[in-house]
Amino acid sequence: MLSTSTLTQIFKPSATVSLPTQTAFAMLRVVVGFMMIHNGLDKLSNIESFAQAYVEVIGLPFPIFFSYLAALTELIGAPMVAIGFLTRPAALGLFGTMCVAIYHHILVAGFNLFLLELSAIYAACFLFFLVNGGGLFSVDALIANWLDTNALSAQAKRIMRLEQAYQASGAEPQKVDSAN
């Protein structure tokens, strides 16, 4: 069984603590996560065709197995990234899948930006979440805080609660006493 400190490190987000940054971070995570789901559904709709056209072409053994692995990684990992649950492990799987897709496109068509573009953007996004975690507005942050109440700074906790993040004008953060 993993220790609490190890689990805390897995779930603890590493990001700038500001409301606009964390909101944009969460929006990117949700959009990229949910957009990736359709790729897994497309693979499953005709797994044999995908295995032949993509997996066999790059020379991987057991093309049906790896096709199912890619589809399930996208169908399970993408929603996990979207809600911010086990974000780093899910992002690792999705980043790997996108690296294989990039390799396939380069092998088949060279450095054709039209074919590489979407896979490269997805890969970069998943690498970002692999490195940074799910952010403060994620299930991971809630779990990290539950495992260790000191895992997140007092400032991050104030932002997560959104109680005193901004004054009524929305322009300036409110001063909060250090006891919170």
From TrEMBL:
Keywords: Cell membrane, Membrane, Transmembrane, Transmembrane helix
Annotated TM spans: 23-41, 53-71, 91-114, 121-143
Recorded GO CC terms: plasma membrane
Membrane-topology annotation of the record: Multi-pass membrane protein
Domain of life: Bacteria
InterPro entries (UniProt xref): DoxX (IPR032808), DoxX-like_oxidoreductase (IPR051907)
Main location: membrane
Signal peptide span: none
Subcellular location: Cell membrane
A Pfam short name: DoxX
UniProt record similarity statement: Belongs to the DoxX family.
Protein name: DoxX family protein
Species this protein is from: Oscillatoriales cyanobacterium SpSt-418
